[in-house]
Amino acid sequence: VRESASFSHSCCKPCPADVHFIWVAKSIRKNFGDDIVGKIESYPSEKKIIHDTAISGRPNVAELTVRAVKNWSAEVVIVTSNPSGTRDVVG
């Protein structure tokens, strides 16, 4: 694992892991607020995919994930979603 900019979550301490993420949600700023959006916006753009469904519609999340896994050479994928969203990605 290469050291990179720290990634932190409200329940986790910053870590040196090379974390990339995909975030698909509706009305992200409205629903999550400026504080969280500001933290996400400050994360390196090459390590994130942010998709606001209120602006861009619903993507094919499984396809988006597979493409990102290949582009990022991901070793681990963690899906946090409702049951049907998880099934769409995990199969």
Written description of the protein model:
By secondary structure, this protein is α+β, with helices and mostly antiparallel strands. The chain has one domain. About 45% of the residues lie in helices and about 20% in strands. The chain contains four helices and four strands. It has helices at about 30-40, 55, 60-70, 85-90, and strands at about 5-10, 10-15, 20-25, 50. The strands form two sheets. The chain has a two-stranded antiparallel sheet. Strand 1 and strand 2 (about 10-15) form a beta hairpin. It is globular, with a radius of gyration of 13 Å. Mean pLDDT is about 85; it is low at about 1-5 and about 10.
Number of domains: 1
Helical segment count:
4
Q: SSE order in H/E notation?
A: EEEHEHHH
Helix content: 40-55%
Please tell me the overall pLDDT: 85
| Helical/strand content category | alpha+beta
Distance N to C terminus:
27 Å
InterPro entries: Adenylate-forming_domain
